């Protein structure tokens, strides 16, 4: 068992403790309260109790970074560790961050050491639709045991990023108009794909079976309300229009 005592506890659930304690058993919090409570004396009598004195310190739940790219660009590594943007196609909703994220990157341990226990990480903003984000704990020996939710969102981007990347390749989008049109077209295609899929599922007929489309399957999660879109924008006007 582990006892953290004498710290100012911010529970983030209404009640805080000026001189609090947290009792942890088998990796789980079992008690939280004021350290002056008589109950604490019983706790202190436990022979196998490890004690951490948090005097003059704050104790709060682990922080969550709701948008980052941890593990997608490996620290201090060049091209070999650069896996954040697939800059060959502006529409890549089927790409999954979990297939690229390097969970042994030192950025995970640095985040954890500074209080961040969960990150939502994923592709960058080169593409109009960049791919799927994943929510991960910042600790673990296998990526599978770190996953909180996958996918957790799909990344889309407006503004300078897509137009800069694809203008250099002499292809769309090279304007904000094209960026908006490509996103709109992709969502409309996904809607049509959903209608065909729903029709087939309600009355299976091989003649009506839609051809499997991995990109559209990824966007169905958005249309069905299973996951949100994370939108990268530079202009306030764009954010308001969304």
- The count of helical stretches stands at 7
* Name given to the CATH architecture of the largest domain: Alpha-Beta Barrel
Overall pLDDT metric: 92
Radius of gyration of CA atoms, rounded to a whole number = 24 Å
Helix-strand topology string:
EEEHEEEHEEHEHHHEH
Query: What percentage of residues falls in helices of 4 or more residues?
Result: 25-40%
The top level CATH class name of the largest domain: Alpha Beta
Which overall shape is indicated by the principal axes computed on the Cα atoms? elongated
CATH homologous superfamily caption of the largest domain? Metal-dependent hydrolases
Largest sheet: 5 strands, mixed
What's the CATH topology label of the largest domain?
Answer: TIM Barrel
Distance between the termini: 49 Å
3D architecture notes:
With 242 residues, the chain is an alpha/beta fold. The chain has two domains: 2-61, Roll (Urease, subunit C, domain 1), CATH 2.30.40; 64-179 and 226-241, TIM Barrel. The chain is 29% helix and 28% strand. The protein has helices at residues 39-44, 106-113, 143-146, 160-167, 176-202, 214-223, 236-241; strands at residues 2-10, 16-25, 28-34, 50-53, 58-59, 63-68, 116-121, 129-137, 147-157, 229-232.
């Amino acid at each position: 068992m582990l006892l953290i005592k004498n710290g100012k506890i911010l529970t983030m659930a209404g009640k805080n403790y000026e001189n609090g304690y947290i009792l942890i058993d088998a990796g789980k919090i079992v008690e939280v309260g004021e350290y002056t409570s008589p109950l604490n004396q019983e706790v202190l009598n436990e022979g196998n109790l490890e004690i951490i004195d948090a005097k003059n310190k704050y104790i709060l739940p682990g922080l969550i970074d709701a948008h980052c790219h941890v593990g997608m660009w490996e620290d201090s590594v060049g091209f070999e560790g650069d896996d954040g943007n697939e800059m060959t196609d502006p529409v890549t909703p089927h790409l999954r961050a979990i297939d690229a994220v390097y969970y042994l990157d030192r950025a995970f341990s640095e985040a954890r050491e500074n209080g961040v226990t969960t990150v939502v990480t994923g592709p960058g903003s080169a593409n109009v639709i960049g791919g799927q984000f994943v929510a991960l704990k910042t600790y673990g020996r296998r990526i599978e045991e770190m996953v909180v939710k996958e996918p957790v969102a799909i990344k889309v981007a407006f503004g300078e990023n897509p137009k800069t990347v694809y203008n250099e390749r002499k292809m769309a989008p090279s304007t904000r108009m094209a960026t908006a049109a490509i996103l709109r077209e992709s969502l409309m295609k996904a809607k049509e794909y959903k209608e065909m899929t729903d029709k087939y599922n309600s009355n299976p007929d091989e003649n009506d079976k839609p051809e499997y489309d991995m990109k559209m399957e990824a966007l169905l999660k958005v249309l069905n309300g299973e996951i949100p879109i994370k939108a990268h924008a530079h202009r306030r006007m764009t954010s308001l229009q969304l």
